[in-house]
Amino acid sequence: MFSPEGPRLRELAVQALSSVERGYDLLAPKFDHTPFRTPDPVLDATTEALRRAGPFDTGLDLCCGTGAGVDVLRQVCRGSVTGVDFSTGMLTVARERVRPPGPAAGWVRADARALPFGPVFDLVVSFGAFGHFLPRELPGLFAQVHSVLRPGGRFVFPVVAPPRPGSLTYGMLLGFDAVMRVRNAVWRPPFVMYYRAFRFGAVRRELTRAGFRVESWALSEFGRRRDGSPRVRLVVAGRPGPGQTAAGTVNS
């Protein structure tokens, strides 16, 4: 599951008994050697889709971690790009990892639920961070993203189709979420990480309520499931420009 450069079992145990912020501070030096990092094929497919839709000017990587999303932004944005995260450790690694060539990147330590920006971004991306937000926090999170986008700007993130009930992956994720709920019931501070709490239907509704026009782009590189639905899709939530209003989801 982990490469030889990844964290040891004891390190993971210490992280799991910490807060989310402290846990990622500890994990940061070895994070890119874990399966928690968004896989390169997903990052590459997202980059290609955004290249076809762009170019964009300014970009923000929400909950940037070690900067994988900033790498995507630097390939599709003509202007400045910024990574924001509340883990000092992750930002430290990102600063060292993301270097020229390419546009310079800025780094800001902040909570995604209270972003310290005005409406200055044309593109906001996020990769693998939403399991750290409880469902009741999504309206506030999406309102924050909406507030930092310029009219006509887009909020983009990949969503992997959920595993089939009864499959090994389904059972593993169900077990992980159950363990996390027990852990948070008996231990403080809580560590919020639930793989099954981020549901596409609920996310679509909350994005629309936050004022976004929501589209769904299939990433053809990953094929489709037996029912015809994409294995991986990009959610593309646009802040309406002048004369536009929020609307329902458009699939492609």
UniProtKB/TrEMBL annotation:
Specify the enzyme's EC class, one word: transferase
EC annotation from Swiss-Prot or TrEMBL: 2.1.-.-
Alphabetized UniProt keyword annotations: Methyltransferase, Transferase
Report the InterPro entries cross-referenced here: Methyltransf_25, SAM-dependent_MTases_sf
Gene Ontology BP term (one): methylation
**Which segments constitute the Methyltransferase domain?**
60-153
The keyword Nucleotide-binding is assigned to this record: no
Q: What Gene Ontology molecular function terms does this protein carry?
A: methyltransferase activity
Q: What name is this protein filed under? A: Class I SAM-dependent methyltransferase
Origin organism lineage:
Bacteria, Bacillati, Actinomycetota, Actinomycetes, Kitasatosporales
